[in-house]
Design goal:
single chain; about 240 residues; mainly beta; seven-stranded antiparallel beta sheet; 13 strands
Length: about 240
């Protein structure tokens, strides 16, 4: 096995100029939300295309809440028009990267108001599942969130988080670099898990760059793939090599 690992590292060095991994953030602001029946059924950004489903009681599905509709208030709540949920507004816009649209499980009995803003997040636990529809593989690097309930990201048997914010309007960030080490490709899914109310503002990805065909043929697709990872150690862990 040590010989295999050595060959893996040599192949990685040989292909170093051929490919790379780039950083992309699903920020729910600059991408395109696909809406069906007043809830999100998909999301696309920078060549990544996802279908979205959700499970859990008390929610009609995944949706976006725009924190910019609200203004600074006093105490534990922001001042929002209509029935908007001020708990989803960060105490300082941009804190831990949180600001603008946040991904929520839309509360079923409180959808929509006269100002056109989404109202509230579901107070019960639930899951929003992202399934990659495009052919660009990626690793999950981290995520930021707002509100008081814990949130996790699961990919297969691996878990990142929780972001466990202290109270209403509080924000947090979880690094997933060492916990979500599997490369996710077309048809693969990851879950955003909510213990209760709250919203996810951004999900940071490391996107694998495609390999030139000549290198794929030369190394049989196994050697060069190490270069798609942010580090050889991380990919070695994802492949189970020791």
């Amino acid at each position: 096995m040590r010989i295999h690992k050595l060959l893996f590292v040599v192949a990685t060095a040989a292909c170093a100029a051929a490919t790379s991994a780039s950083s992309t953030t699903l920020d729910f602001d600059s991408g395109t939300a696909v809406v069906s029946g007043n809830v999100m059924s998909g999301y696309a950004q920078e060549g990544l295309v996802f279908s979205i489903t959700q499970t859990g009681a008390g929610s009609i599905g995944a949706n976006l809440f725009n924190t910019m509709f609200c203004v600074d208030g006093t105490g534990d709540a922001a001042s929002c028009g209509g029935n908007d949920d001020g708990d989803l507004v960060p105490r300082t816009q941009g804190e831990n990267g949180v600001g603008g649209n946040v991904l929520i499980r839309q509360e079923s009995h409180n959808f929509g108001n006269k100002n056109g803003a989404l109202d509230d997040d579901a107070a019960t636990s639930g899951i929003i599942t992202f399934t990659l529809q495009s052919s660009t593989p990626f690793w999950i690097h981290g995520f930021s969130a707002v509100d008081e309930q814990p949130m996790w990201i699961d990919a297969g048997t691996q878990t990142c988080g929780p972001v466990n914010n202290a109270g209403n309007r509080d924000t947090g960030y979880a690094s997933c670099e060492n916990s979500l080490t599997s490369l996710l490709g077309i048809g693969d899914s990851f879950d955003v898990r909510f213990a209760g109310s709250g919203g996810v503002d951004s999900i940071e990805l490391l996107v694998a760059a495609p390999l030139p065909a000549g290198f794929v043929l030369l190394f049989g697709g196994g050697g060069c793939i190490g270069l798609l990872a942010p580090s050889s150690d991380r990919l070695i862990r994802s492949l189970g090599i020791s």
